[in-house]
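Ligand-bound model needed. magnesium ion.
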Amino acid sequence: MLELKNLYFTVQEDDAVGGKSRNIIDGIDFNFQDGKFYAITGPNGSGKTTLAKLIMGVNPVSKGVLLFNGQDISSWTITERARLGIAYSFQQPARFKGITFRDLLTIATGIEDENKLLEILGRVGICPLSFLDKEVDAKLSGGEIKKIELAITIAANPKLAIYDEPDTGIDLWTIGPMVSLLKKELASNRTTTVVVSHNRAFLEAADEILIIHSGKIAYSGNLEGAMPLLDDLSVCTYRDSCEGDRDAGCYR
Ligand SMILES: Nc1ncnc2c1ncn2[C@@H]1O[C@H](COP(=O)(O)OP(=O)(O)O)[C@@H](O)[C@H]1O
Ligand SMILES: [Mg+2]
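Prediction:
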């Protein structure tokens, strides 16, 4: 459904560090298939967020093509891509003073009816009454804001949903239900789902894993095949201090 063809994102580095051009996404070719669950992983700084932003149109494509069901969307705006059915859940969601969760949900879905909004919240499994009129501002915890972001993405009923590290700041006991929720959305709405994560639960849930390294796809395939490379690339950067992360499902 989404085809990446020889995709590049190139930046000009500051003169202080040489002033050379650098390919942050370096010639990626990949075909995301309809109704599949993908996990993207790879070391910090390898280009995962940049790739997600290229798909959503937050970053402009420097070279190459993005085809959505055969249509070239490479130069489309974020809004046009959202209308097409692409949704993106930010790694660091924005916070808005004076704007409530209800406002954001209404903007995302066009729905104002309170019962329908509560129904959506029930569907994504967050406490509707305590959240609906909360301001999406700096007072929310990192985990709360990620849950809100997830709910808004799901409520938009996308055809393709990209979640950038949805588990960051989320309590451990929420991660299992979060995986089940995304799987359920995929099964009921055929939402092609792409999750950027280092978490074992997402890697295990995926139909296919992509490992990004230095802006290229270093691997695509099943978890078993990914394991040796994950270990080699040390997805958890601080190997020696990773012991305690085992419970958090972090690969070593
Ligand atoms: N617009 C930009 N200009 C310059 N450097 C960038 C830009 N966007 C990302 N980078 C750099 O590209 C690398 C990959 O970033 P990112 O995609 O956020 O990595 P991650 O895999 O951790 O999500 C990082 O070194 C980051 O600093
Ligand atoms: Mg990132």
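Residues 2-248 form a domain with the Rossmann fold fold (CATH 3.40.50.300).
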